[in-house]
From TrEMBL:
Domain Peptidase M20 dimerisation as annotated: residue spans: 168-262
Name of a matching Pfam family: M20_dimer
Sequence similarity: Belongs to the peptidase M20A family.
Name of the protein this chain belongs to: Peptidase M20 domain-containing protein 2
Organism: Streptomyces ochraceiscleroticus
Amino acid sequence: MKLTAHHRTARDAAESWRPALLGLSHQLHADPELSFEEHRSAAALAGLAERAGFAVERGVAGLPTAFTAVRGSGELVVGLCAEYDALPGMGHACGHNVNGAAALGAALALGEVADDLGITVKLLGTPAEEDGGGKVHMIEDGLFDDVAVAMMVHANDADTVGNGSLAIGSWNIAYTGRPAHAAAAPWEGRNALDALTVAQTGLGLLRQQLPPESVVHGIITDGGQAANVIPARTAARYEVRSPTLESLRTLQERVRACFEAGALATGTELRMEPHGHDFADLRQDTTVAELYADAAEALGRTVGRAPQRTGSTDMGNVSHLLPTIHPMIGYDTGGARQHTPEFAAAGTSEGADRAVLDGAVAMAWTGVSLAAVPGHRARLLAEADRRAAARERAQEDAVSPRP
């Protein structure tokens, strides 16, 4: 790619923040916080943005650990999504310390050229990607309404663009039965653990009929209190994944039937409650993804372009609303995959540090190209206007339904 003065200014700005960005990444890694509890992490990101002259609003969307940080006043709003929650028992085994620091770095870099390019840079601090879906809360609160394009990078063991993700829904499951002495009078009980066993057996048999790429997985969180008492209560957490939201809805009904069968067979009561928001499948904008890939390659990175589905993310919900990219940025993890202690251990390596800076610059350069090339800018603004008009029509219909 050909670097312009704006590209160089953005790169130099990111480099000037290198110590702070790497310090932030290491700080998040050393002090992992779980979903919706990322108070210190959110404060650290928001504080750095404020130091750089961004207007920061904390506690947005009713979430204490969500924030927005804005610089510039141009009509083209470029959104950068920062993640910073960790996994229970594993810390940053998904690399969100890298994700969050890179997003902040991109915002700081773009902020230096925002006025010249006629853009508004909007950093969105999005909590609870691992469990709950902070981005969905922020979508519902209208915080993405003005965003024309959304970007983030995700830590991985290799650089790729264009990946998809699976739609996912999660349930909290609970069976209530009746306790009894397990030896003296078991017939007087209603075994809630048996109910869960029946459900799991049904799920095991269902797996033969699962469509490609659809998966069901979960854990038992309460299996009873004593071996000599018929369990009166059991609980579990289960997740269902499928290639699209539409196929997810179909699969959820079949999975629900397995849990209902457990209650029917054992005479227990079933309660199924959604756990957080459903995540949509990820649909990346191919034009923006290619601009990012060109930028990353200009930084000396090797970027794969063989799309595949990898896990699930609430960035999928964003991608159903507006042009979005979610490229993977890689570093040496010793062959370890995400959600393992070994992956977490690589999160402050030299390669991870380089990923923070390269991810920041590559996203900033992508933003520069989108703003400076008339065709890209016009497309994003036209789509933003179309979405705004659709929201206005929906609001009018809600007040005065059409005949």
